[in-house]
Amino acid sequence: MTTRILSLKDVKSRVSLSRSTIYRRMAAGVFPIAISLGCRRVGWLESEVDTWLKKQITIRDNCR
Question: Class assignment of domain 5-62?
Answer without folding.
Answer: mainly alpha
